[in-house]
Design goal:
The complex is a heterodimer of chains A (110) and B (116). By secondary structure, chain A is mostly beta strands. Helices cover 0% and strands 56% of the residues of chain A. With 116 residues, chain B is mostly beta strands. Classes of the chains: A mainly beta (110), B mainly beta (116). At the A-B interface, strand 4, strand 5 and strand 10 of A face strand 4, strand 5, strand 9 and strand 10 of B.
């Protein structure tokens, strides 16, 4: 079953602009993770935010978590063409497995 | 570090045959491995969780007799798609967790299966 829904499903922006993706989930979590997937490839782990954290930064990435609303957002600042990929949130509910959201397809045009 | 490989990266097989996909953790011991399936432009769906030396735990709706999972060592898990049909065509991705209490999973590059 799918835990999270992401919006938008697709996002098209110009290089240099910021990209924001949102993830909503249904049950309590231990942590929430964001992954990137280039077309036809495996997943790359981007960032993990624990349930007791509200915001986390890593380079051009900023992740927020609102457990009261069961939602998270991923912000990519100053986007580049190389950021073009699908982005997935995944929730760890503490039962050893990740449940992935529906994903956002990001297209960054030069 | 923390590299996971999959073999083969792509495979084409005929209906009715079986296909084995390997997932290896190259530089760490994986106490737990996970198998996911992904259809085009869709998300990853967890198929099963396997712990070394024990039987895999399958998600609801996944046929354990069709998708055989073996986790014989701390660095190798295999997924065998038995009597494959065209609807089994998909992208199969494995991941590995190094420690029971570790949050992080390391993903393999995936295997594209096409059943003709």
């Amino acid at each position: 079953s799918q835990q999270g829904e992401e919006d938008p499903q697709a996002l098209s922006i110009q290089e240099g602009e910021n990209a924001t993706m949102n993830c909503s989930y249904k049950t309590s979590i231990n942590n929430l993770q964001w992954y990137r997937q280039n077309s036809g490839r495996g997943l790359v782990h981007l960032i993990l935010i624990r349930s007791n954290e509200r915001e986390k930064h890593s380079g051009r990435l900023r992740v927020t978590l609102d457990t009261s609303k069961k939602s998270s957002s991923l912000l990519i600042t100053a986007s580049r063409a190389a950021d073009t990929a699908s982005y997935f949130c995944a929730t760890d509910t503490g039962f050893q497995k990740l449940v992935f959201g529906t994903g956002t397809r990001l297209l960054v045009s030069p | 570090g923390a590299v996971v490989s999959q073999h083969p990266s792509w495979v084409i097989c005929k209906s009715g045959t079986s296909v084995k996909i390997e997932c290896r953790s190259l530089d760490f011991q994986a106490t737990t491995m996970f198998w996911y399936r992904q259809f085009p432009k869709q998300s990853l769906m967890l198929m099963a969780t396997s712990n070394e030396g024990s039987k895999a735990t399958y998600e609801q709706g996944v046929e354990k007799d069709k998708f055989l999972i073996n986790h014989a060592s701390l660095t190798l898990s295999t997924l065998t798609v038995t009597s494959a049909h065209p609807e089994d065509s998909s992208f199969y991705i494995c991941s590995a967790r190094a420690q029971v209490l570790s949050y992080e999973q390391y993903f393999g590059p995936g295997t594209r299966l096409t059943v003709t």
